[in-house]
Amino acid sequence: MPLWLGMVLLVAFGASAHAANWDECRQVKRDSLRLQQALRKGVVLRGYRDRTQMRNELRDNNNWLWKRCRQYSAELRDLSAR
């Protein structure tokens, strides 16, 4: 097998192995929207020590969404528009 074909298969398989399903993506996006709205209002949500912890969680959620939920990007944009 040529080296380039092996690399293509590895990349294709690796990308699909880390993809999340729609329910996980929707839940994380809703949590991100909730954190974003609370940060804009200046409110610390229950379960968080301070706004810094909320910002870090928001950043982690957004990175997770970007890495694992690209195939649902249009649906996730619709969620944030509502």
Structural class: mainly alpha
The oligomeric state of the chains shown is single chain
User: Can you tell me the residue ranges where pLDDT is under 50 for at least 5 consecutive residues?
Assistant: none
Give the end-to-end Cα distance, rounded to a whole number of Å.
Answer: 49 Å
Radius of gyration: 17 Å
Helical residues, percent: over 70%
Give the rounded overall mean pLDDT: 87
Order of helices and strands: HHHH
General shape: globular
Strand content: under 5%
What is the strand tally? 0
Main sheet makeup: none
The number of distinct helices, counting runs of at least 4 residues, comes to: 4
Give an account of the 3D structure.
By secondary structure, the protein is an all-alpha fold. 76% of the residues lie in helices and 0% in strands. It has helices at 3-17, 22-41, 51-68, 73-81. It is globular, with a radius of gyration of 17 Å. The N and C termini lie far apart (49 Å). The model has no long low-confidence stretch (mean pLDDT 87).
